[in-house]
Predict the 3D structure of the following.
Amino acid sequence: MVELSPRFWEIFFEVFDELPRQGPGNRTSAARALELCADLHEAPAILDVGCGVGAQTLHLAELTMGSIIAFDKHTPSIRRLQATIAERGLSQRIKAVVGDMAAPEQPLGSFDLIWSEGALYSIGLRKALEVYHGLLRSDGYLAFTDAVWRKADPPAAVRASFDLDYPTMGTVEDVLKALSDCGFELVGHFTLPDEAWWEDFYTPMEAHIANLRVKYANDAEAMVILDQLAEEPEMHRRYADYYAYEFFVSRPIRSES
């Protein structure tokens, strides 16, 4: 495993903390996933896991009448989301808190919808499924996105990039098996469209990196790090056929009465 320097993380967060979102996704995909939650309560209790700066949190507030607890371990992201919530007058519906995904400290059986875009992998998908199964009501839904392989033979550079951050990444079939093994039944799934990678993620990322190249023009170490970060959208531009983000909507398997 490559050990990344403190300077890398400093520049990394300078890039990512300013983006509209910290991973692929968009409002259209969120709406499509919500449509799969056919009998969701009219004003659902929602938990947004690994919310980042809250792009999808705000989509959920627009698309439902629910109350939302959004949490993430990265304090600057939560502070930014808290400011956005206050600016938009949503404090009565959304609570943003710093929290540990592996130990969310929420009451068992208290949520109608648990939502997570690109975050569950960080504690291991199967562990996440076990943790969040218990927080759902019996008729609740778990909706999440996860990176998956689309082809079995990705180029070495692509494999190495994902191995660095998500070494256990599998296929759609692997995720479906994990869901079944962990007590969930699949409601539906779909692949995020390519625009969900670019509109609010890679396009602003590339623009922000370009601005930071001007700021750090005389800082050789920072320029090398910016080159490393710029490899991610370029890799997607060249090799998107090999991997995808998939939206999965599932619910706890109901026991036979």
About this structure: The first helix runs from residue 6 to 16. The two ends are 49 Å apart (CA to CA). The mean pLDDT is 95.
